[in-house]
Amino acid sequence: MKTTSRSIAAILMALAGALPAGAGDQPDITMAINQSPWLDSFVAMVDLYEEETGNVVKLDVNPFGGLLEKIRNSVRSAKGSYDLVNVNSLWLSEIYSGGFLVPLTDIRDGYTLQDGILTYGATTNWDPAVGSFSPDGALMGVPVNGNVQVLYYNQSVYDDLGLSVPATWEELHSNARAIAEATDSYGFVPRAARDSIVYNFTPYLFSHDAAFFRVTGPGQAEIALNTAGGLAALNAYLKMSGEDVAPPNPGAIAQGELIQLLSTGKAAQAIAVIAAWGALENPNESRVAGKMSAALIPAGPGGTHASSAGHWVAGIPKNVPAERQAAALAFLDWFQSQDLQVKYVEAGGVPVRGDLAGTALGAENAYRFLEAYSANAGNAVMGLPFAAAAEASDAMALHFNRAVIGEESPETALNAAAEALAGVLERNGFTVTRQPEL
C-alpha cells in the first residue's frame, strides 16, 4: 500500500530551489520498508522524487518484526515482489551473504556512493571471500537512515552545575555523580535490558580497543571479548549502571524507558539513538524540549571513540527485471545529494551524510545535533558482522544482563558470553580461536 504525505512534500517543493538533475523516465518500482518514526520523512522524499521526475516509488509499509520475513520471502522467490528492500543493520549480513542482492556496479558500471555518504563501518560493502563487511568488497546498497548512538546530556543541568562535555568514560561518570548528588535527576541511564544491552554495550567495548570477535580470514574468527580490554569495557559499563548514578533495576531499562526518563527530566544523561532527538525536542511529548544536547560518545583509555551502527541500507534484489533494477538505482542515486539530505532532515529524517553540520542547516538551533551525529556516525561499528548476528546477540545478552543485575561477576559473564558467541560462529561455519578464560 502506498503511503503519502503530500503536505510535507509541498513544503519541500517550495524550499527546493535548484534540485539535482531528473532521473529520466523509469518504470514504477516497489520498496519494502518499515513502519517507524522516520517513515513520514522518507515518504516526503519519495513524493518529492515523484514530483520532480514523474517516476513512481510505491512503498509497502510493514511493522519492524514483519519486514524481515517479507524481504526473505521476496528475495528467495523466482520473481521478487520488491525492487528495493530496506534492510536493518542487524540483518545485512544475512541478506548480503545469501547472495540475494545485485551489486550496484552490475547495474551501472563503475558506480560509487556520492562523496559525503557515510558507510557505517563499511556496511554498504560485502566481501564473500571473507564472509564479512569490507571497504574492498562489492557495493551492495545505499544507506537511507543513519540511526547511530550519541551521548545525550541535559544542557540546562550542565550549565547549572558548571559541567563540561566528557571526553572519557571516567569524566562521564564524574558528571553523573555530580548530577545525582546535586539534583533530583539520575546522573545516567543505561539501556541494559536483555533486548538492548549488546547494542548499548558496543561503544564501551570498541572504545576499549576490544571487540566481540574479529574475522581473521575466510571462514576464520578470533574471539576478542573475554580480554583485558573487554573486561575494562564491561567494568566501565557496570560503573555507569551503578546505584550511585543510575535508576533502580537498570537491567530492566530498554529504549522506551530510557527515552521516557530523559524526556521527563528524571535523568540527565544517556547513550541512545539519534532517532530519539525528535521526541526529546517535541514540546508535546517532552519536558526538556530545547534543553538537550548531543555529543561524541566518550573515548576509551587509548583515545578510541566508537558508536553502534543501527542504520538502514536499501538494496536491490537480483530477482527483478534489469529495467526495474536500473529504476531503483536511479532513485537511490537521487536521494544521496547534499541538498536533498538537508530537506530530508528538515522533514524529520536522520541523514546519511557526514557533511551537513557545515551547511546552513547545521547553524540552526533546531538541528544542533548534526555535529554530534556526524562525529558518532564516522565512528560507527557493526559489532557482529556475520549472518547469525541476532542469534549471537541474544546468546551474549543473557550474561551481560546478569552482570548488570549482580548475578554474574564481570569475568564470569565475559567468559560465558564469549563461549556462547564461539558456539554460534562455529555453527555458522567459522573456525574459531578462543581466548584463555579470565
Counting structural domains, the number is 2
Helix content: 25-40%
Mean pLDDT value: 92
- The CATH architecture of the largest domain can be named as 3-Layer(aba) Sandwich
Q: How many E-type strands?
A: 16
**Do you know the CATH topology of the largest domain?**
D-Maltodextrin-Binding Protein, domain 2
Which stretches are poorly predicted, pLDDT < 50 over at least 5 residues?
A: 1-22
Derived structural class = alpha/beta
Largest sheet data: 5 strands, mixed
Order of strands across the main sheet: 2-1-3-14-7
End-to-end C-alpha gap? 53 Å
Q: Output the CATH class name of the largest domain.
A: Alpha Beta
Gyration radius, in Å: 22 Å
Strand content: 5-15%
Count of helix runs: 16
Globally, the shape reads globular
What is the CATH superfamily of the largest domain? Periplasmic binding protein-like II
